[in-house]
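Task: sequence design from structure.
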């Protein structure tokens, strides 16, 4: 079974669920159906939330489970919070610490990091 589409592949607008269908008895139910807030998250954000909840919010456990630093955990938590807590101020993303972590891991060169930081400032 395919995952639910969130955006129109033609115009990129948000899609609505307007029909449910039972393949067993051929019943169809039409209307406008909402989706849960967690479905607004990307698959990566959903996985992060799952690990965060299963670790009972212990950031050190999340760090170890995902192999990421404390600032990265906080940034991902802020991103999820921004999606789920609409109406709150947009969180500050601490990009510079993420970039430094990527340099340490060898995922970015210094030149790539400079370009990335200049692009966000």
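Answer:
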């Amino acid at each position: 079974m395919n995952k639910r589409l969130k955006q129109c592949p033609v115009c990129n607008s948000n899609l609505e669920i307007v029909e449910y269908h039972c393949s067993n008895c051929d019943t169809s139910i039409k209307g406008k159906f909402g989706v849960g807030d967690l479905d607004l998250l990307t698959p990566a954000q959903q996985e992060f939330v799952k690990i965060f909840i299963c670790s009972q919010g212990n950031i050190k456990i999340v760090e170890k489970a995902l192999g990421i630093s404390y600032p990265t955990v906080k940034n991902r938590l802020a991103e999820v919070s921004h999606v789920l807590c609409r109406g709150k101020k947009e969180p500050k993303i601490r990009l510079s610490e993420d970039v430094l972590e990527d340099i340490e891991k060898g995922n970015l060169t210094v030149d790539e990091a400079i370009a990335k930081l200049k692009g966000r400032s």
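DSSP finds five helices and two strands in the chain.
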